[in-house]
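Researcher: Quick test of sequence recovery. Tokens follow.
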């Protein structure tokens, strides 16, 4: 309902954070529209003076007219003062009180008409005065409704004396006139409150809209700033990507150049190893043949000590030949081929064991099933052949046991060759995969485990030597799936 809505609006507005701004704007409006009331007051006072001067005491009515003009001029001075200095929100309540005081004075001056001896005036003059005061009250309901108490400050002192005077005349006609004054004043008060509520709501909406516009503008500026920042970040990202592509292309060129250089170096190394082995093997064969001739033709004439030296020489020649052959094998390994096969480790090791000459008292156990590896079968065969031979050759007993097993380690396989030999001292475990590392067995070349390490690293794996309990060694290969 309208009344409920207005009451709700007033309740909400009284607690709004914009209340100081609304009051300041209401006071500003009050002082802006005040000159209209001044003009009406001056003109109406002249009209009342000329109409009533013939039926009332001239000095009284002239004094009344002078008081109206003096008060109005003072109010004009108040407005001029207000407009001549900077207006601040904090002083709004003070300027409001000053204006209300001027309204009370003006209303009292107009209300003093009700104290005049109306019995001397005709009924028409009495109705005229009531009409003038009612018109002034009607004007106040709109002109001074910017503040809630503006209408009351003016109208109560203006209408109340006349209404009381009508009642004191003590006849039905004047009772009716007094009742009409009260009713008319009350209705105008209600209209004034409605005008005040509409004006206040309008101001509230204006300030809320201004705040919303300010926030939208700030949000727009913030969004534009973020957009500029995003554009700058995108430009920086594109620039970084371009630099990264250039650097990547540069690295690719370097890798291609280094790969080509490495391939050339490997070929040269392989050629050198082949030539070196050929050049070294030729005199070795001559020495071996000479030792064989001496052994066959003159062994019976040699002293036992010389025969032992001859046998030692032939063993050293054979060891030298094995070293040269191992170096040639190591140099020829290169990198794993790009094309790989799926190698069934079970089948490959069974074939290897069939071809591998093991001592009669050595057992080799495959703990099946074993996985399939993505590799060159020849490389896998070389790896396990070297590991099994190494386990047998370095065993310290005539009877031994070797196990081959595998374990799933997530992204890798753990492939292990385990023996029950003497084991490897902890300080030597990092050295056994180097070239010519023979441990305590000088009769061996020390190339087999180096070949294993080179092949495993070529496939992206790792190889390590671990202790086996209670004795022996575990050679563990970590092979990518």
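Model:
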């Amino acid at each position: 309902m309208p009344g409920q809505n207005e009451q709700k609006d007033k309740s909400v507005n009284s607690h709004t954070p914009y209340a100081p701004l609304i009051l300041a704007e209401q006071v500003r409006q009050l002082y802006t529209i005040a000159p209209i009331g001044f003009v009406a007051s001056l003109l109406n006072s002249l009209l009342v003076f000329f109409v009533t001067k013939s039926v009332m005491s001239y000095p009284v009515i002239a004094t009344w007219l002078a008081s109206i003009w003096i008060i109005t001029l003072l109010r004009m001075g108040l407005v001029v003062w207000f407009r001549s200095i900077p207006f601040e929100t904090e002083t709004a309540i003070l300027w409001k009180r000053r204006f209300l005081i001027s309204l009370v004075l003006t209303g009292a001056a107009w209300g003093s008409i009700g104290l005049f001896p109306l019995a001397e005036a005709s009924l028409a003059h009495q109705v005229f005065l009531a009409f003038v005061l009612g018109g002034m009250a009607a004007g106040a309901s709109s002109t001074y409704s910017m503040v809630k108490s503006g209408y009351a400050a003016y109208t109560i002192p203006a209408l109340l004396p006349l209404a009381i005077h009508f009642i004191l005349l003590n006849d039905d006609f004047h009772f009716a006139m007094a009742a009409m004054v009260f009713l008319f004043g009350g209705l105008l008060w209600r209209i004034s409150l409605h005008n005040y509520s509409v004006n206040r709501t309008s101001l509230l909406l204006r300030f809320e809209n201004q705040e919303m516009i300010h926030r939208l503008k700030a949000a727009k500026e913030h969004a534009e700033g973020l957009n500029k920042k995003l554009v700058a970040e995108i430009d920086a990202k594109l620039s970084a990507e371009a630099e990264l592509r250039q650097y990547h292309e540069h690295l690719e060129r370097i890798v291609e150049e280094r790969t080509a250089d490495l391939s050339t170096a490997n070929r040269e190394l392989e050629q050198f190893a082949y030539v070196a082995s050929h050049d070294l093997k030729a005199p070795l064969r001559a020495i071996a043949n000479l030792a064989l001739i001496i052994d066959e033709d003159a062994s019976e004439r040699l002293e036992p000590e010389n025969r032992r030296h001859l046998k030692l020489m032939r063993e050293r020649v054979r060891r030298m030949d094995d070293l040269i052959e191992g170096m040639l094998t190591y140099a020829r390994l290169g990198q794993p081929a790009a094309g790989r096969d799926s190698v069934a480790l079970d089948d490959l090791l069974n074939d290897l064991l069939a071809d591998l000459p093991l001592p009669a008292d050595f057992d080799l156990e495959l703990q099946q099933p074993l996985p399939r590896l993505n590799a060159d079968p020849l490389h896998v065969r070389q790896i396990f052949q070297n590991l099994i031979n190494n386990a047998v050759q370095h065993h310290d007993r005539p009877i031994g046991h070797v196990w081959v097993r595998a374990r799933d380690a997530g992204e890798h396989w753990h492939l292990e060759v385990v023996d029950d030999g003497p084991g490897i001292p902890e300080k030597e475990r990092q050295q056994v995969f180097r070239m010519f590392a023979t441990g305590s067995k000088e009769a061996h070349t020390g190339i087999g485990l180096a070949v294993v390490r080179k092949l495993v690293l070529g496939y992206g794996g790792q190889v390590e030597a671990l202790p086996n309990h209670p004795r022996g060694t575990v050679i563990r290969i970590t092979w990518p799936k």
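Residues 185 and 389 are 124 Å apart (CA to CA).
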